[in-house]
Amino acid sequence: MFITCSDSRINPYLITNSKPGDLFVVRNAGNIIPPYGDACTSEGAAVELAVVELQVEHIMVCGHSDCGAMTVLFDDEARMKMPLVNKWLERANDIRQHIDEKYPDLSPAERITVAAKENALAQLENLKTYPCVAAALAAGKVVLTACYYNIPTGEIFAYAPETKCFELLN
Fold first, then answer.
1. What's the confidence (pLDDT) of residue 38?
2. What whole-number distance in Å separates Cα of residue 63 and Cα of residue 54?
3. Domain containing residue 92: CATH number
């Protein structure tokens, strides 16, 4: 399962070197997976279908450079102009607060990069709130991975829990 942003510059099949039919793809603004119980969403239904019915063995959440959703997350004026986007991005307000508190000296561009990475990690935590994902993790049947795609360079970085860093994939 590949969860990523709706940004058209992201091609899950190209990034993963896979073919149609190889991936179960979920795309939305900011690659956000609402936590279990946050109403019934298409994202939640897709996760449940992928894990229970399709028995996917790997779920990857992929953030990316220059993410419009992460940019709007920090732009109160833009959020007020888009009430639906604002409501959707409320699910990422913890990311904004974390970045503001932990990285107050970042430039706007650096803030978006860090937010995209932190957001991918946060979505892994949201995935763990789904009973089917928790059960599959406990049984060793699924692996969760956060990654970051640098669009200009084509580089893909995966989060390494042992180093607590996003590391370049070969």
1. 83
2. 24
3. 3.40.1050.10
Task: Give pLDDT, residue 86.
Answer: 97
8 Å CB contact between 117 and 148: yes
| CA pair distance 141, 6, nearest whole angstrom | 28
Please report the DSSP string for 43-57 in residue order: HHHHHHIIIIIS--S
d(Cα 63, Cα 65) in Å, to the nearest integer?
7
Domain that holds residue 115: 2-168
As for how many domains the chain has, the answer is 1
Q: What tokens were used for 55?
A: 């028995």
Q: How far apart are CA 170 and CA 28, in angstroms?
A: 27
Of the candidates 107, 100, 103, 123, the residue with the CA atom closest to the CA atom of residue 33: 123
Segments of the chain with pLDDT less than 50: none
Angstrom distance (rounded) from CA 74 to CA 97: 10
